[in-house]
Structure formats: C-alpha cells, structure tokens
Design a protein that fits this description.
Strand content: 15-25%
Radius of gyration: 23 Å
Shape: elongated
Helix content: 25-40%
Order of helices and strands: HHEEHEHHEEEEHEEEEHEHEEEH
Number of strands: 15
Distance between the termini: 37 Å
Amino acid sequence: MVEQGSLSAAARRHGTSLSSVSRRLRELERHFGSQLLERTTRNLAITDAGQALYQRSTQVLLELESLGEQIREDQEPAGVVRLLVPSLLPELTFGSLGEFLDAHPKLHLEWETNDQPDAEAFGYDIVVRVAPLPSSSLIARRLGALRGQLAATPKYIATHGKPNRLSDLAAHRCLRFRGQQPQKSWELLDRSGQLHHPELGPGFEARSSRLLQAALFQGVGVGLTEQRIVDHGVAAGKLVRLLPSYHSQEFVLYALYPEASRKLRRVQVVVDWLASHFA
C-alpha cells in the first residue's frame, strides 16, 4: 500500500479486491493500536507510526531474504529489483542490458525514471540520485560522475547559426531543465576552472532530462547534455559540439539502498553493473 500510493493500486498489484486490502489495513491498525495510513479520496499519506512499521518490516524481510540466499544451494541472483533512476541513466547503461540479463536469467528488473531529487523512494530496491544526497539511513555507493557539454544538430545550426561565445547563447533557443525554480542560466566551467553563468535564450523547458535530450536530437535548440551522449551524437553525425572550451561541473551519481540489502546478491549484482558504466 505504501509503495503503490493507494489502496486500489495495491489491490491491483497483488491481484486481490479493494475490500480485502482495506480489511487487512484495518486489522493491522487494530493489532498495533495506531493509525498507519491517513486515507483521503485521492491518495494515502503514511503516518509516523506507519513509516516506522514499514521501514522495520522491510528490513526484517530483507534480512530473511539474505539468510535464505546464504543457505540456498543455488547461488544465482534471482528475483525482482525495482529501480528509481534519473531519466538519462538508461541511455548510458542499456547498451549492455541485454548481455547483463543473459548472464543473470533469474533477475527481473523494474525501472522507473524521475529527475526530481525529492522523489518518493518507498518501495524501490535501488534509488540512483545526483549529489547532494538527502539525509537518510540508506547506504550510498558512488557510481561515477556526469559532465555536460553543449551541442546542437546540424539542422539547427544551418537555420540559426553557431554560437561562438557564451554571450551568443542569449540569442539561441536553449533547452532548459526545470527543477524547483526556472533555469535562467547554465553553470559552465572554462579550461582554467573559472565558473560562468551565461544568459540563456528562451525556447523549451522540461522537468525530464530525457525530454530535453529528445528535443536536442530533433533540432529544437542548443542543449547541455552528458558528455558521452554528445560524443556518440557527434560520431554519428547527429550532433555538433559547441563551445568545446566549456563544460558543466561534474555531478556525482550515487546508488542508494537499505543497509539490509548490502548482502543481497540480486541488489549488489545490479549496483555493480551500474557502476561498471562509470569506471
């Protein structure tokens, strides 16, 4: 229920009726003598007591699973691994996903993407986030760093010209990421390490890095995207690197997971695979 966000979604996921899920929730609340979830007409909000029970029960289940792995003769990683990741991570990792799943046929991966740093992490085995990290009890393993570069398509440049100086960006359609606040400039470092904040021309804004990348490759405007994606686009003739003397600051990626998952093979083999792309 906590992971699905509503009683009806929990019922659908577990193949049971809404009345059965509601009855089980009432039984749990009577057993523990406390309200675990605050129900509204649209969603659920977990109470402090509910969160404590959820976290502790999740830890107990993970510890039991780890014990089962230790005593089981079959050492092959198996089971479902649910991930919540930035929207560009599949672009950087899916090239080897088929090979990875071939090597681990008993694994089943469920991916969801979200670029918001405060996205709800309930119910995921691995959450990949960019520093700064939220304060939590989760284990944080450094995967690697991302660095953005400027690029545009040959089609866009043929129509709008190429920016030759940072100040030229104010006259171009710039593809902006919208976080909690509108993005009015990019933070770019030159080769000496000096930080610049060039003004950006209006054009397109989105809360998803994947949408911004799609807009970039469709010639919508000038984008700031991950260096390896730019390298591949340039090699394929789909992108032109712009103002190569400048790049974004590095953003460190971390895989977050509960302490009890440290010994789970199904989790660790996926984290190792993710880290291999940034070694």
